[in-house]
Amino acid sequence: MLKKSVFKWSALFLIVLIGASCQVARQQELIEKQAIKQRKDKRELEKSAFFLKIRCVDDSRVTVEDELLSHPYQYKVYPDGEYDFTLYHVTGKVYDGVIEVIGEGGKFGKYPGYEVCFNESVLSTVDQRGSLNLIIPSPEGWKVIRVKIRSR
Known about the structure:
Blueprint: H1 2-48, E1 50-55, E2 61-64, E3 67-68, E4 74-77, E5 82-88, E6 94-101, E7 107-108, E8 111-117, H2 120-129, E9 131-137, E10 143-151
Parallel strand pairs: 1-8
Antiparallel strand pairs: 1-4, 2-3, 2-5, 5-6, 6-10, 7-8, 9-10
């Protein structure tokens, strides 16, 4: 009788153990599928990224998202992204702004992207008005980047 009872409990334990290992295998498979999907999504996001090159401020300092850029001033952006920037002009004036990416990138040189030029004309207009909105279009005329700049 004791042998039958031990056998039944052993069989029950074995069934529970097999069921648990099947559950663990299913969980592991789901985790692997999720990791593969995340890597695929990241690759797709990287394909849509491009560079925004900031020109006409060679002697100034530029930060985007609190990261000090080195010359040539360029920053990797993604569609639907919004990035804060600060331009410390050589004259001592400080300009803050927001870069809104509303489209996909084109090309400048060998890098995909667009350029924005903060020349003296643009900055004097910002000084007079207090702020300025710029739209950077694609070669086809689609709006790609909206830059809002204001003087401090």
